[in-house]
From TrEMBL:
Biological classification of the source: Bacteria, Pseudomonadati, Pseudomonadota, Betaproteobacteria, Burkholderiales
UniProt key word Lipid metabolism: no
Pfam families assigned: GyrI-like (PF06445), HTH_18 (PF12833)
Top-level division of the source organism's lineage: Bacteria
Database matches in InterPro entries: AraC_E-bd, GyrI-like, Homeodomain-like_sf, HTH_AraC, HTH_AraC-typ_CS, Reg_factor_effector_dom_sf, SmbC-like, Tscrpt_reg_AraC-type_HTH
Residue intervals of the HTH araC/xylS-type domain: 15-113
This protein's name: AraC family transcriptional regulator
Length: 286
């Protein structure tokens, strides 16, 4: 693959753009400024970005801002007007209209009745989730091609974008690969900026990885896992984990193994409405 060094240079340039976008979601989108970060011509760089990542820069920014906004609504008490402003909308009405189109309900309703609410105890004191929604599955050991991520778990998409770009440049993308996120720290006790995770894929065949490559091979233990299939936005994951650990695990009679939990993503967030995203949360068991 004689063109690999050339592709790698484009990957590195556009990865700088993605890093800037993820780290500056509160700021206005400036196409010319992003072109400078990419060190590419303002006339052409956006076509290169769209060809490599499958969406326009504006679509990427809008998707990431709405994803973050859903997290604010599901997991905090930030006023909706402030969420709208931080998401780049000059009016609450415009934000509400766009959010409703993406998530199927306006922001205020989502905060109260979004899919994350099913993990909250009901007023009767019973749990709205039931124990049978978790299945025990024997999972084989896997080797995961991965990219490290440090920081908010909600920002792991940055590492996934980098990984997908690396795979695409080597013709390793396939319908058979499995998308995996591995999470090492408890966000309840570890500072957000220090959270460790890995964005990964399990490929249908083994590949050789150079020691100088930006990716690594991470082994994932085999054995029994408690698997909770979750349908809905990624912003709901915090509530799902709280229920899985705080309700299911303590009532199940099982113990968690000394290994990280992982998530398997069953569809593509670039092509799937947030309400239809499917994720399997896999908790290792003794």
């Amino acid at each position: 693959m004689n063109d690999l060094p050339h592709r790698a240079r484009y990957e590195a340039r556009l990865n700088r753009v993605l890093d800037h976008i993820y780290d500056h979601l509160d700021q206005p989108l400036d196409i010319d400024w992003l072109a400078g970060i990419a060190c590419l011509s303002p006339y052409h760089w956006h076509r290169i970005y769209q060809a490599m990542y499958g969406e326009t820069v504006a679509t990427t920014v809008r998707r990431l801002r709405l994803h973050r906004a859903a997290g604010y609504l599901a997991n905090g008490a930030m006023p909706i007007a402030e969420v709208a402003e931080r998401s780049g909308y000059s009016s609450l009405q415009s934000f509400s209209r766009t959010f409703r189109a993406a998530f199927g309900m306006p922001p205020a309703q989502y905060r109260k009745q979004g899919t994350h609410s099913r993990f909250r105890p009901a007023l009767s004191g019973d749990d709205q989730m039931v124990m049978r929604e978790v299945v025990i599955r024997e999972v084989p050991a896997m080797n995961v091609v991965s990219v490290d991520h440090v920081g908010s778990y909600m920002q792991i998409g940055k590492a996934f974008d980098s990984l997908i770009g690396w795979l695409a440049g080597r013709n390793l993308l396939s319908a058979e690969m499995r998308m995996i996120g591995i999470f090492y720290d408890d966000p309840g006790i570890v500072a957000e900026a220090e959270l460790r995770s890995k964005a990964g894929v399990v490929l249908p065949r083994d590949v050789d990885i150079d020691v100088a490559a930006p990716v690594a091979l991470t082994p994932l233990r085999g054995g029994q896992y408690a698997v909770l299939r979750h349908q809905g936005p990624y912003s709901d994951m915090h509530s799902a984990y709280q229920w899985l650990y705080g309700t299911w695990l303590v009532q199940s009679g099982r113990e968690a193994a000394d290994a990280p939990a992982f998530e398997e993503y069953l569809n593509n967030p670039k092509e799937t409405a947030p309400a239809d995203l499917l994720t399997e949360i896999c908790l290792p068991l003794v």
